[in-house]
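Onboarding guide, step 5: your first structure request.
Type a short instruction followed by the sequence, for example:

Predict the 3D structure of this protein.
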Amino acid sequence: MKLIKQLDTGIYQVLHKFRKLTKKQQRIVYGLLILFVFFLINFINAQFVDNAMWLEGNWSSQSNRYTIKTKNGECQYWNIKQNDFFLMEDAQIAVNSSKGNIVLTKSGSNTEYHLIKIDKNHLGLQIFNNQKKIKELKLKRAK
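The system replies with structure tokens like these:
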């Protein structure tokens, strides 16, 4: 309760000081606040876009088991296996990836693996060759 009272007093003091500013000073504060929020959102987004650790592990469909593993802790290089057979070694996350849609490809390769996060335990796998979808699967995290 004491913390809430201190917080309430602090907010009141800041607002009281803000009201004493001139209109021009208030506009500058608003502008700086908007810039701060904009940069904060971009910073947070940049930190999570490259975090593909949710992808690592074993995934299975009705007839196949896929293993997706990173070769280092920084998620730069990935190996994709289907039933212990390498589909792609040293794949990298493509530029057009996002938080929920990871594209793994290798330099000089015409094959792309699009991994779409459905939820914590499910993902969609789309395999493209020469920019044409050749296979689409729904995978479940294997235990």
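Each response can be followed by summary notes, for example: The mean pLDDT is 86.
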